[in-house]
Amino acid sequence: MKNSNHFSRNLSLRCASAIGMLLLHTSLEAGEKALASFKNDDSLESWTSVNDGVMGGVSKGGFERLDEGTLLFKGELSLENNGGFASIRTKPAKIGFAGANAIVVKAKGDGRTYWVDLRVTNQMSATSYRAYLSTTAGEWKETTIPFTDFKPQAFGQELPYKAIDPADLASIGFTLADKKAGAFALEIEFVKATDEAKTEKKVGAGGNTIVDVAAAAGSFKTLLTAAKAAGLADVLAGEGPFTVLAPTDEAFAKLPDGTVAALLKPENKDQLVAILKNHVIAGKVTLVKALDAGSGESLYGSKISFQFEDGRVRVGNAALIKADIAASNGIIHVIDQILLPAIKETKPLSSMGLIELAIDRGVTLFNNDETAACAAIYEVTCEALRVRDDVSEDSRKVLGRALKAASAEKSDREKAWILRAGIDRTAENLESAKK
After folding, report:
1. Mean pLDDT throughout 205-218?
2. What does the angle CA 26 – CA 286 – CA 217 come to, to the nearest 5 degrees?
3. What SS3 class is residue 1?
4. With contact defined as beta carbons under 8 Å apart, do 261 and 268 qualify?
5. Please, is 148 exposed, middle or buried when counting C-beta atoms within 10 Å of its C-beta (0-12, 13-18, 19+)?
6. Which of 246, 352, 356 is closest to 301 using CA atoms?
7. What is the mean pLDDT of residues 164-190?
8. Bridge partners of 158?
9. How far is the CA of 390 from the CAs of 235, 259, 393, in angstroms?
10. pTM of the entire structure?
11. Diameter over CA atoms, the chain
12. What is the SS3 assignment for 247-260?
């Protein structure tokens, strides 16, 4: 039996107390503060729902507290009468937390992407700071969202950016406006303010690299096998940071019979490397940042699009299954299709062509002070060159020493210079071999 039911299509809800939000005082680490939890009926006193009925729409959305001590936000989204949104929020109250860098939301969704809404003191009710909250149907997930990911908006239109002040937080809410009609349900256990840097350090503790996290998941066996065959597994286990668009084993199984086996053959390494590099973006790109940018450039050089379409996030030709899986050296987004690059079959990229391409992109990044991304490109290039047939044994040793020295260097700038020296020496050897 459910304890309370609060469904409404308009702004006139029952009177709520000014202190509606129950704050947790247990199970929190130092530097954390619960902004919302739902342990008893009183915890709902400050919550209200605001749906598109205020603009003539007919969407239905509301909330109730379940016996498990969670808040269920559910209803029916309709696109009729120019509608298309449902939301819940807390009434204004002083809930800020000075010094916090992020919020953490623990929720179980239905596979749709929601917004987390934050409001500050003296802010108009029609404006808010919003950030994406992706969900996987039927699965609980803790999502850490830095305050820098929240963008100010009004009536769905983005406003000029102004950083949010965590100490000035006055309201928390959730909105669904994905332009997909139908029933929805989002169950929320808690929202808490935290220190993002501290949280990321905790997640990355114990050597949880991208390779470690993928191996522990158990659903990326083909991807890891391919990365090892291409000589890229050590790169993805390196410092990074990298963003990996990780196809599941089921995604690889969708390829024509025999494709994976053929790609794993030594004579097809170049093609395998190209495909895998098309699934890696230099730097740590969260889903929010990817959607804001609209696209990102893979290490192969392809433009990978990130779009919100038909209630789901699409990454290139693939659908996003799960986003923002943290690793100590980057982040993973899980996808359901292989992102095949546009490989020219007439003339494969030569080793010298690979070097020229890496330097062209690396120099631009380095000059823009994106030294970590530059170093990442040089690192992947060094690894790729080591397995090419036209690269001499001497050059392979040079590249190996550069990779080893770079891995011990803390400065991204110096790391880029070390790797660049190895690439330049290899280029000289390739030119000498032609004479």
Report:
1. 78
2. 70
3. coil
4. no
5. middle
6. 356
7. 91
8. 153
9. 21, 25, 9
10. 0.49
11. 86
12. ECHHHHHCCCCCHH
